[in-house]
Design a protein that fits this description.
GO molecular function, one term: methyltransferase activity
Largest sheet: 2 strands, antiparallel
Protein name: RNA methyltransferase
Order of helices and strands: EEH
Number of helices: 1
Number of strands: 2
Shape: elongated
Structural class: alpha+beta
InterPro entries: SAM-dependent_MTases_sf (IPR029063)
Distance between the termini: 68 Å
Keywords: Methyltransferase, Transferase
Length: about 80
């Protein structure tokens, strides 16, 4: 292509011109890795998983909150 300035490595690339597509113009190339992929070891989580349930004390607090505030009128326009 003209934009390659004779560079043979760019013969399989394309340039997306801004007047043909939305945006400011893009350059696209598909890369190929010729080596071997390194193995990736799984990382162990250091944080202790939290319980997804609530305790009896938390449930009692919720019921108290609902009882205290459910009878109050809420005025959001104030």
């Amino acid at each position: 292509p003209e934009f390659a300035d004779g560079n043979e490595d760019l013969t399989k690339t394309i340039r997306l011109m801004p007047h043909h597509f939305e945006g400011e113009g893009q350059f696209l190339a598909k890369l190929k890795f010729n080596g071997e992929a390194a193995s990736v070891a799984k990382k162990k989580s250091k944080k202790k998983k939290k319980s997804k349930t609530i305790s009896t004390d938390e449930l009692d607090l919720w019921h108290k909150f609902v009882a205290d505030f459910s009878s109050q009128e809420l005025n959001f326009a104030d």
